[in-house]
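Weekly modeling sync, notes
Attendees: S.R. (lead), two postdocs, one rotation student

Agenda item 3: backlog of single-chain predictions. S.R. asked that every request posted to the team notebook include the full sequence so nobody has to chase files. The rotation student volunteered to paste the first one in as an example of the format we agreed on. Action items at the bottom.

Example entry:
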Amino acid sequence: MAPFIPEGIVNPELNLFFALLLGIGFGYVLEQAGFSSSRKLAGVFYGYDFVVLRVFFTAGVTAMVGLTFLSFMGWIDMSLVYVNPLFLWSAIVGGAIMGLGFILGGYCPGTSIVAATVGKLDAMLFLVGAVTGIFIFGHFYNDWESFYNGSFLGNPFIYETFGMPRSWFAFALVIVAVLAFAITQRIEDNVNQTPKEIISQRPSYVMPGMLLILSMFALLFLPEQRKSNAQEVPPHELLAMLQQNDRFVDVEEATYKIIQQDRDFILIDVREPEEFERFALPGAINITMDELLGRRYREFFSDNKEKKVFYSYGESSADMAWTVAKRAGFEEIYVLQGGLNGMFDTLFNGSDVPEDPKNMDEEFSVRFITKARQMFKEGEALPKEATQPVPVRTIIELETPGGRGGC
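Predicted structure, as returned to the notebook:
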């Protein structure tokens, strides 16, 4: 149901209800496609029926094209779409087991339930085997958990692995799908020895295929980022936020978070890379204004669990970055009050002893700044690597009793 639930379109309490409706619809589509027949499903391995390949290719390409255009239009946030993590060897072994079962039994888990529902005995037997396998896997899970969760490679995308833009990969996949449809139809006709009269009576799919290719070709020329999107903050709301001045993070909070190495507090340096290399605050990352709205950091800014604070030498550049990011609809973003100059002035030019403190909070603030100054000067604000302990050797000169000789 994601991303409808995170966006507030669907009530989380109705999640299972909508999942039931989608499941019924999915089963209906599988039945109408003929997937309740093990002979039709196994036909893809023997060359006489490629309906499985065509149905799944059609579903995949349709979803890919739709998500690509909806993402560009700003109607869907791809960072909210769940991507299965990749555990290399467990994926390979699991795929081999499922493929072997598909060839021998003629069903996959989903199609076996559809076939069993319409009364197929072989599908019911297949389901008994699947449930038995699930029981064995769950019972001995602790024995092969390390293998099951081993070789974790994160959540990679194929286009990232190939080092190519997402739009070009989508275009290439559409070409492969169209060619697969044409080639498998030829193989199927040759294996089944389909008469030429039947072949000539089929509708032509040349026009739909060309329209699909042209639509994906147009995607290659779309800009990386739209000028506006559905999450964009209207100008009058942005102006009101600028007037409230609640976007600033004071030096004391930033200093405390740096010392504590808080992972949910991220400092973003908006200066040029050369300036960032010369000096940067501990733990900061460098994102320039040109990179702010790029696809590289779109998922990073969409994560609202972390507090992101822009900073530069002063407030102007950081405030501009905040305005651009806020206009794009990003949340949990702030600006370091005073920038680097203000932070250094507070840390290193402040008084060590509070002059006539008005209350305990002011006295505590001065003492904290004094301690933080000492830690920054001595480098204690930076994480240190533990050194290897050096054994202590004590040499004691022993004098033989009696001056000479031994016992």
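Discussion: group reviewed the output briefly. The longest strand covers residues 265-269.
Action items: rotation student to repeat for the remaining queue; S.R. to check formatting next week.
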